[in-house]
Write a structure and sequence with these properties.
- The chain has 12 helices and no strands.
- By secondary structure, it is mostly helical.
Length: 217
């Protein structure tokens, strides 16, 4: 009897180990299909019970990868299948940050509509708004403002989104933020304003916009 129980336990352990290995393989295949932007492949693997929140060695989920790639169809599919819109990778980058960095406005809108958190900060102390503003992705900035991000919110070193946009000469974003109430006279921890930053970085267009905004205060 004991021998029979031991054999049964061994068989069960083997079956469990096989199931775990199979799940690991199907999850790996899902991550690869997302990287390859294969909607049919992703759909088939999800139908086979692949985990929509599986993670690669960098902690990226299928959703984070799809958001970074700007793949709207895959983002929609993964969200429909239960992907966590707030799952960050090992660098604490969320799908919303990935989409904002790349200027993928439709994905940013999909994520904020799904209640993605706009507040997380990654390992380099940046948020989705900082990425959008610094890269001049004005439409993404607009979407984030619409999701409740304060135009005068303070980030690392007491910088504002306006300062980030000004530093990189993103004139359309500077203009948008000013129109949404961003304060051109705000100062960071070094005492610099968006204008002094723009002038230091020789961003003529942003400097002109900010000078006009300050003159009108």
């Amino acid at each position: 009897m004991k021998a029979r129980h031991a054999a049964s336990a061994f068989l069960l352990a083997c079956l469990c180990a096989t199931a775990v290995a199979q799940q690991r393989n199907i999850n790996f295949d899902l991550l690869q299909a997302v990287r390859a932007r294969s909607e049919a492949g992703v759909r088939a693997l999800l139908d086979q019970s692949a985990n929509p929140n599986a993670r690669n060695r960098l902690g990226d989920t299928p959703l984070n990868t799809a958001a970074r790639n700007g793949d709207v169809a895959l983002v929609r599919l993964l969200m429909e299948r239960g992907a966590d819109v707030n799952q960050a990778n090992l660098a604490r980058v969320t799908p919303l940050m990935s989409a904002a960095y790349g200027g993928h406005t439709e994905i940013v809108k999909l994520l904020v509509d799904a209640k993605a958190d706009v507040r997380p900060v990654d390992r380099v102390e940046k948020t989705a708004m900082v990425y959008a503003a610094g890269n001049g992705n004005a439409d993404c900035v607009q979407a984030l403002l619409g999701a409740g991000v304060d135009a005068n919110a303070r980030y690392a070193h007491d910088a504002t989104a306006l300062m980030w946009a000004a530093a990189y000469g993103k004139d359309d974003t500077v203009r948008l933020l000013l129109s949404k109430g961003a304060d051109p006279s705000a100062r960071d921890e070094r005492g610099e304003t968006a204008l002094t930053i723009a002038e230091r970085e020789k961003q003529a267009g942003a400097s002109t916009l900010l000078q006009g905004a300050l003159a009108g205060k």
